[in-house]
């Protein structure tokens, strides 16, 4: 709710007449500057933004201002998400209209929702629930947006007016240049996409040769019951499928089928720069499968395998992209579709990528998946995909279903955004925990709770052991969270790391700290924070299991490593940024182990250490409850392979 993360720098009771909203990616200092102008006019002001309550972000005057409230941008409980459905319906309706007949037989929203959510609508998907709640304040409140060109202004205005509020913003006139700018941007984007696809085709020559060899291999006579769809150059994204399906299948003697997607190029993808590659090994992302690939049936659902096919895709994609550009250029840049109010003008390049690159890859996937279906029988098979979010995977998924397969969308870890990628087009969605299953059920898709890879084993610590090693894990500086050159979540990383000073103040030098940043974290952001904590060790390139085995206590941000850490059998404290306050995996976590401001950790941490030192048998009761809420009464993740083997 709106007051979950609201503070007043000076104790007072104030009903704000003006609300200043700071969109994600805008420096929070701009919000304070804007608010100060209003305060000088004797207004009472609430600033709403990500990181606004962190005192390190405050100008000096804030601590003495009596007419100011600071509110973090928090999400909403899942039981109130019905308010999101009109927005989702608006996005679906727009996609169905604009992308009609791009991929024959499928609605535009079936194919392009995931890409559109990431490329275009994430700026309004993320804050929608919070803003819907924020604008329900009683009275004629005036709303201000620090960025008057923010693409969600129309949505904010619509929400405010529904509740007798007023958006104070300069009204942008419709640009007469919008059609020309869109057409030029789209043609430039299509040229870039074409050149990029030609480059990729050339670099995939060795992969095409290997595919021809594998298709003619003597082992290719069997008919797989299980297929896995993998990104051959990205081991981290494939790991959960390799651990949950591939390893147990091979151990049981099951013959597998492999469908490659993404790209067939040699080398491995670099987590911190997804356009960069390292090494020259072919399909390095397949892990253990690389050494047993001759035992499998192998095909691909993403790339043209001849110059003729490449040229046909190019011609078809060009025609479709031109049609889409003309269709969009004839409309206003502002979308008004049900609850969807959105201005495309600030997202010309992302829109151009959606209607060029994503259309290209969807068409390529349609042709490649049809070719694979001609070569293999998928009737009665189970196909497990690493994700069904992208346009290319959605096309392949739907075509495989039409060929008689049961498809399973098994995305890496906990959903990054359970509003943007739920539900998928797959027959089933597989998630690691009951928490992740909650939003899937909300949207009506069938879900399996299983398949979490066991990369972490139980730490055997005797009762009364002296905890000394604290592992801090974070994901606040990933390349995915960059907005321009800004890392909006960096303030949360600083707040999380502040627990080091707090614990040292209370326990002296008892504890040794190790920090495990996310593999995709920006190196410069890690170095900058580490310079503030010279006595904290950086994880020396260890696996997650090795770092967990070292740890006596874990302090982590919310990510897919949280349920894995639960298997370690040590205390786990969860740093909750407000934007994830009501995310299911956070709501299911034991309340006494959650904190936002570093100072909130002081008392529960001291109580935990006292319980551990005394050998209290209930010292890990919070972790036990969380495991049961995540995995059920056994507190253990279920085997996806065993569930699917018996599924009919």
Q: Compute the number of helices.
A: 21
CATH class designation of the domain at 222-302 and 378-449: Alpha Beta
How many strand units? 23
Q: At the third CATH level, what is the topology name of the domain at 222-302 and 378-449?
A: Rossmann fold
Unreliable spans are none
Q: Strand share of the residues?
A: 15-25%
- What is the share of helical residues? 40-55%
Q: Termini distance?
A: 42 Å
Please state the average pLDDT score: 89
Q: Can you summarize the main beta sheet?
A: 7 strands, parallel
User: So, CATH architecture of the domain at 222-302 and 378-449?
Assistant: 3-Layer(aba) Sandwich
Q: Strand order, biggest sheet? A: 11-8-7-14-15-16-17
What would you call the shape?
Answer: globular
Question: Secondary-structure blueprint of this entry?
Answer:
Elements: E1 6-7, E2 18-21, H1 28-39, E3 45-49, E4 68-72, H2 85-98, H3 108-134, E5 142-145, H4 153-162, E6 166-168, H5 178-203, H6 205-215, E7 226-230, H7 235-251, E8 256-260, E9 266-270, E10 273-282, E11 297-300, H8 307-329, E12 334-337, E13 340-343, H9 348-355, H10 357-375, E14 382-385, H11 391-402, E15 406-409, E16 428-431, H12 434-442, E17 447-449, E18 469-473, H13 490-497, H14 499-507, E19 512-516, H15 523-530, E20 536-538, H16 544-550, E21 553-557, H17 561-565, E22 572-575, H18 584-587, E23 594-595, H19 602-614, H20 621-631, H21 640-646
Parallel strand pairs: 2-3, 2-5, 3-4, 5-6, 7-8, 7-14, 8-11, 14-15, 15-16, 16-17, 18-19, 18-21, 19-20, 21-22, 22-23
Antiparallel strand pairs: 1-4, 9-10, 12-13
């Amino acid at each position: 709710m709106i007051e979950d993360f609201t503070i007043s720098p000076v104790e007072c009771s104030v009903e704000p007449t003006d609300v200043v909203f700071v969109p994600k990616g805008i420096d929070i200092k701009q919000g304070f500057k804007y608010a100060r102008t209003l305060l000088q006019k004797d207004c009472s002001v609430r600033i709403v933004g990500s990181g606004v309550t962190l005192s390190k972000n405050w100008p000096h005057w804030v601590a003495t201002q009596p007419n100011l409230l600071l509110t973090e941008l928090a999400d909403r409980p899942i039981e109130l998400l019905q308010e999101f459905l009109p927005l989702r319906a608006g996005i679906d309706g727009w996609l169905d209209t604009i992308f009609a007949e791009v991929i024959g037989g499928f609605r535009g929203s079936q194919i392009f929702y995931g890409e559109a959510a990431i490329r275009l609508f994430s700026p309004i998907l993320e804050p929608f629930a919070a803003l819907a709640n924020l604008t329900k304040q009683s009275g004629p409140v005036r709303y201000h947006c620090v960025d008057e060109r923010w693409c969600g202004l129309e949505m904010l205005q619509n929400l405010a007016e529904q509740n007798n509020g007023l958006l104070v913003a300069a009204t942008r006139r419709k640009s007469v240049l919008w059609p020309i700018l869109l057409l030029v941007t789209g043609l430039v984007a299509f040229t870039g996409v074409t050149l990029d696809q030609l480059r990729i085709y050339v670099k995939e020559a060795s992969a095409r040769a290997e595919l021809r060899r594998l298709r003619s291999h003597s082992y290719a006579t069997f008919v797989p019951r299980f297929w896995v769809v993998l990104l051959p150059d990205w081991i981290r994204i494939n790991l959960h499928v390799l651990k949950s399906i591939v390893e147990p299948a091979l151990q049981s003697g099951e013959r597998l089928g492999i469908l490659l997607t993404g790209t067939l190029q040699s080398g491995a993808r670099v987590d911190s720069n997804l356009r960069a590659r390292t090494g020259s090994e072919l399909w390095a992302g397949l892990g253990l499968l690389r050494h047993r690939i001759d035992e499998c049936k192998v095909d691909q659902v993403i790339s043209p395998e001849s110059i003729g096919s490449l040229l046909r895709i190019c011609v078809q994609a060009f025609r479709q992209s031109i049609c889409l550009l003309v269709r969009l250029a004839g409309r206003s840049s502002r979308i008004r579709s049900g609850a969807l109010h959105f201005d495309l003008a600030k997202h010309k390049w992302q829109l151009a990528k959606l209607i060029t690159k994503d259309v290209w890859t969807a068409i390529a996937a349609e042709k490649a998946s049809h070719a694979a279906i001609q070569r293999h029988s998928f009737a009665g098979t189970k196909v497990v995909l690493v994700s069904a979010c992208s346009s290319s995977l959605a096309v392949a998924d739907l075509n495989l279903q039409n060929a008689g397969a049961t498809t399973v969308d098994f995305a890496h870890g906990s959903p990054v955004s359970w509003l943007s990628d739920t539900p998928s087009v797959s027959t089933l969605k597989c998630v690691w925990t009951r928490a992740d299953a909650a939003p899937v059920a909300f949207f009506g898709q069938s879900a399996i709770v299983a398949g979490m890879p066991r990369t972490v084993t139980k730490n055997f610590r005797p009762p009364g052991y002296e905890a000394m090693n604290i592992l801090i894990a974070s994901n606040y500086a990933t390349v995915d969270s960059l907005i321009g050159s800004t890392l909006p979540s960096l303030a949360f990383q600083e707040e999380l790391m502040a627990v080091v000073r707090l614990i040292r103040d209370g326990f002296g030098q008892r504890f040794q700290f190790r920090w495990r940043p996310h593999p995709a974290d920006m190196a410069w952001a890690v170095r900058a924070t580490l310079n503030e904590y010279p006595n904290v060790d950086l994880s020396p390139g260890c696996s997650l299991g090795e770092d967990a085995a070292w740890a006596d206590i874990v302090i982590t941000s919310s990510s897919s490593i949280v349920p894995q850490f639960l298997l370690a059998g040590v205390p786990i404290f969860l740093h909750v940024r407000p934007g994830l306050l009501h995310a299911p995996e956070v709501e299911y976590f034991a309340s006494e182990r959650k904190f936002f401001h570093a100072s909130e950790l002081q008392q529960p941490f001291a109580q935990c250490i006292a319980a551990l030192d005394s050998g209290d048998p209930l010292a890990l009761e919070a972790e036990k409850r969380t495991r049961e809420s995540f995995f059920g009464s056994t507190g253990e993740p279920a085997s996806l392979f065993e569930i699917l083997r018996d599924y009919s």
